[in-house]
Amino acid sequence: MVAVGLVVCLDRHRDDRLEAAPHPGVDGRRGRCYLGAMESCRCEAIVLGVTDYRESDRLVTLFTGELGRVKGVARGAKRSMRRFGGALELFARIRAELVSGEGLSRVLGADVVSVFPGIRRDLVKIALAGYACELVELLVPEALPQPRLFRLLTAYLEQLDREASSPSDRRFFEVNLANILGYRPALEECGSCGAPLADCEHLFLGAPGSLLCERCRRGGRKLSAATVQLLRRALATGRFGAIRFSRQEAAEAGDFLDLLISAHLPRPLKSLAFLREMEAIGGTSEES
Question: pTM for the whole thing?
Answer without folding.
Answer: 0.84
